[in-house]
Amino acid sequence: MSELGFEDVTVRFGGRRRGLTAVDRVSLTVPSGHVVGLVGESGSGKSTLARAAVGLTPVAGGRVLLDGQPLRHSLRAGSRRRIQMVFQDPYSSLDPRMTVGASIAEAIPRGSFSKLARETTHSRAGLTARRTEVSELLELVELPADRADVYPGQLSGGQRQRVAIARALAARPDVIIADEITSALDVSIQGTVLNLVRDLQRRLRLSMLFISHNLAVVRYVSDYIAVMYLGRIVEYGPADDVLLDPQHPYTRELLALTRTVEDAEPADPHHPPTGCRYHPRCSIGPVVLDGRDICRDAEPTAAGHRHGAACHFAENTTSIKEPTGDPTPAH
Amino acid sequence: MTSVPANVPLFSAMADNAWVRFAVRRLGRLLVSTWVVITAAFLMIHLIPGDPVRAALGATAPLELVNARREALGLNDPLWLQYVHYLRDLFTGQMGTSMISGLPVSQVIGDRLPATVELAVGAFVFAIGLSVPVGLTMAVLTRGGRRRRAELAFTSTSVVLAAIPQFLVAVGLVYLFSVQLGWVPVAGRGGLGSYVLPVLALGLGPAAVLARILRVETLGVLQADYIRTARAKRLRQRRIYLRHALPNALTATITLAGLLLSGLVAGTVLVENVFAWPGLGMTIVQSILAKDYPVVQGIVLVYGLGVLLVNLVVDIALALLDPRSTIRES
Amino acid sequence: MASRLRSTWGGVLRTPLGASAATLLAAVLLLAVLAPLLWFERADTVDTANILQGPSSTHWAGTDSLGRDIFYRVLVATRLSIQLALLSTAIGVLVGLLLGAAPQLLGARAGRFVTAVVDIAVAFPGLLLALTFAVIFGVGTRGAVLAIGLATAPSFARLTSTLVASVAGRDFVAAARIIGVGRVRVLLRHILPNVGEPLVVNATIAAGSALLAFAGLSFLGLGVQAPAYDWGRLLGDGLNSIYVHPLAALVPGVVVLVAGLAFNLFGEAIAKGIARTPDIAMAPDGPRDRRGRRPMRAADATGAQADLTEDPDRPVLAVEGLRVGFPGPAGVAVEPVRGVSFTIRRGEAVGVVGESGSGKSLTALAVAALIESPGWVQAERLEFLGEDLRDTLSRTQRQLLGTTFAMVFQDPTTSFNPTQRIGRQLAEVAQEHQGNTHAQAMARAMDRLRAVRIPAAQRRAHQFPHEFSGGMRQRAMIGMGLMGAPRLIVADEPTTALDVTVQRQVLGLLDRIRAADDVALLLISHDITVVGEVCERVLVMYAGRIVEDLPAAELRTRARHPYTRALLAAVPDMKTDRDRPLAVIPGRPVDPANVPAGCAFAARCPLADDHCRQADPPLVDDGSGRRVACWHADAMLPAIPVAGDGRGAGGRGE
Question: So what's the ipTM on this one?
Answer without folding.
Answer: 0.83
